[in-house]
């Protein structure tokens, strides 16, 4: 396959994979809570230790205004808590509530088996290499390790 065709194939395949995974995830997310996959990804980032709105926007490649709207929705749903950062009152600290931790764990538990079936198609060690490769393809500011 020519290099220019390879680049276009990557776009097509990632698009199709993303749509397929999003639909799988959407069904599991909505069975547990009134959330969408993007909201679940944000909850996972918070669970992983990303605690400021700006960091969350960067971590999930989202516009700050969109992240703020999602955080408001998650707060109203009782899944997160916002409070001033104890070290810097200009910053807001975001944490999961007990309900947020429970919902995040329940959704992850539902998603893992189906996703693992897909990853099991890869040989030993290939799944880890695949994840590493995807991180390499992200712009540097979005390639931080996530839980």
Automatic annotation (TrEMBL):
<dbReference type="InterPro" id="IPR039422">
    <property type="entry name" value="MarR/SlyA-like"/>
</dbReference>
<feature type="domain" description="HTH marR-type">
    <location>
        <begin position="7"/>
        <end position="139"/>
    </location>
</feature>
<dbReference type="InterPro" id="IPR036390">
    <property type="entry name" value="WH_DNA-bd_sf"/>
</dbReference>
<dbReference type="GO" id="GO:0006950">
    <property type="term" value="P:response to stress"/>
</dbReference>
<dbReference type="GO" id="GO:0003700">
    <property type="term" value="F:DNA-binding transcription factor activity"/>
</dbReference>
<dbReference type="InterPro" id="IPR036388">
    <property type="entry name" value="WH-like_DNA-bd_sf"/>
</dbReference>
<protein>
    <recommendedName>
        <fullName>HTH marR-type domain-containing protein</fullName>
    </recommendedName>
</protein>
<dbReference type="Pfam" id="PF12802">
    <property type="entry name" value="MarR_2"/>
</dbReference>
<dbReference type="InterPro" id="IPR000835">
    <property type="entry name" value="HTH_MarR-typ"/>
</dbReference>
């Amino acid at each position: 396959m020519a290099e220019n065709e390879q680049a276009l194939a990557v776009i097509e395949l990632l698009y199709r994979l993303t749509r397929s995974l999003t639909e799988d995830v959407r069904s599991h997310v909505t069975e547990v809570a009134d959330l969408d996959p993007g909201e679940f990804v944000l909850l996972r980032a918070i669970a992983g230790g990303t605690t400021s709105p700006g960091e969350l926007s960067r971590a999930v490649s989202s516009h700050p205004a969109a992240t703020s709207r999602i955080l408001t929705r998650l707060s109203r749903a009782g899944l997160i808590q916002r409070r001033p950062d104890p070290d810097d009152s200009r910053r807001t600290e975001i944490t999961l509530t007990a309900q947020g931790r429970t919902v995040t764990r329940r959704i992850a538990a539902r998603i893992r088996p189906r996703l693992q079936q897909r990853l099991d198609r890869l040989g030993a060690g290939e799944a880890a290499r695949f994840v590493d490769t995807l991180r390499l393809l992200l712009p540097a500011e979005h390639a931080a390790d996530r839980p």
